[in-house]
Amino acid sequence: MTTFTKLGDQETPVISVHPARRISKINPNIYAGFTEHMGRCIYGGIYDPGNPLSDENGFRKDVLEALKELNIPVVRYPGGNFCATYHWLDGVGPKDQRPSRPELAWLGTETNQFGTDEFMKWCKVLGTEPYLCFNFGTGTLDEALAWVEYCNGTGNTYYANLRRKNGHEEPYNVKYWALGNETWGPWQVEQMTKEAYAHKAMQWAKALKLLDPSLILILCGQDGTATWDYYTLKHCLLPAFSALSTSSVPLIDMHSIHVYTCSSSHLPNATAPLAAERAIEITSSLIDLARIENNVPPSQPRPTICFDEWNVWDPIRAEGSKGAEESYTLSDALAVAVWLNVFIRKSRDLGMACIAQSVNVISPLMTTKEGITKQTTWWPLYLFSKFMRGWTVSAHVSCATYEGETAPVWLRGVMETPWLDVSASVGEDGFVNLAVVNIHDEKGIEADVQGVKGEVAVFTVTGGDVAATNMKGSEEVSVKESAWDGVGTYVFPKHSLTLLKWKD
């Protein structure tokens, strides 16, 4: 948690850090990834058979090595919008017998050469857990149950035996499963009303938990601020042994929300992720409201928020049906850093967050036939995933604010937009980590940093200007390491992310 006091432009900013005041545990799953059959994310991204950079499985080794640097705990698959017409059986078994199908989400052809077993193998090589999304469009409950049986079944049953026949004796033990994706959206095949979705989600959840009570089922929300979110939470967050279920465990474990931010102007772009902070707060309140109205006992675990799609994305600049390949700038990197600050500040409510996506598609990591490029947005993700773990700790910021327009417009009326955006954490190793984004594109900001002890390691992400990019053949934005003695004030450079690290 970071609290804020607004100062005048001429007053000296102050950042106070209190490592002893641990607010909430940071779930490592906030650094989760997302791979979808969209553009070059799978084919030509993580899977590129025949390329000399790929291993015997067809997995790009350079991509795997880069992603390992992020210590990604979970990866979502196979979508995204793609999953609304995806039939998992098309993607298992001998590859020469797998059908090619028209793909309606992104208007392409799906060859099914990469499917469930390949994804599970890729997760194992990467060292991450899978998170699968059910087809709530053209899919059936029988198909969903069969997929769980295929992945998790241990008995002498048809789909567990099919997995064994396909060369995979041991179950995959997939824990996380989404009850559809963005089923509220007009772009979805078989778009639903909130009433139809809530009914279907509960019926599927009941059957799925009869098959495997250990599943963590994730409800399909909207953006956390919509009537859809209120209605689905109200009708699906029910007590165990409710009128709709005889299950001894709750049917719904998490609530998914999606938000993308962008603006062609730097300051609205950099402050836009604060809308996600408000969305998390509203969703958290809706979860509490549903539990109160439905008389859910306090002994029943409180669902967390699964922010399983987030990023900076301009769908006009990077059209989805054309592969959604963004060329990110320093401004976008600072926006991603603010996104990550939001997740640290709101760690009490977050059970997972998946950046969309992991490779090529609106991604910090891009591939060519010859290698990879780490975009500007790679570096804040790298620093946060490496250092911002453990517990969120109390911090207070006093500084001036940006007073201009915001994107979305409603943000201006509900949130302050300080020039310094801050979060703080303390790790198991006793090191304090303070992340400070100076969104100002014209001046560095000198601040009194209180709570520092001794020598401070400094990691800085910045560039020549907010339009700097790494997609023109040179790395204009990266991490620079330095040190500070922790004495006096610290000047946070203009348009920069600074991470300060010291032993408590």
UniProtKB/TrEMBL annotation:
Enzyme's top EC category: hydrolase
Enzyme Commission number(s) of this protein: 3.2.1.55
Pathway of action: Glycan metabolism; L-arabinan degradation
Residue ranges annotated for the Alpha-L-arabinofuranosidase C-terminal domain, each copy included: 308-496
Catalysed reaction equations from the record: Hydrolysis of terminal non-reducing alpha-L-arabinofuranoside residues in alpha-L-arabinosides
Keyword Hydrolase included in the entry's annotation: yes
Biological process, per Gene Ontology: L-arabinose metabolic process; polysaccharide catabolic process
Keywords: Carbohydrate metabolism, Glycosidase, Hydrolase
Membrane-crossing segments per the record: none
Family: Belongs to the glycosyl hydrolase 51 family.
Protein function: Alpha-L-arabinofuranosidase involved in the degradation of arabinoxylan, a major component of plant hemicellulose. Acts only on small linear 1,5-alpha-linked L-arabinofuranosyl oligosaccharides.
Name by which UniProt lists this protein: non-reducing end alpha-L-arabinofuranosidase
Origin species: Penicillium cinerascens
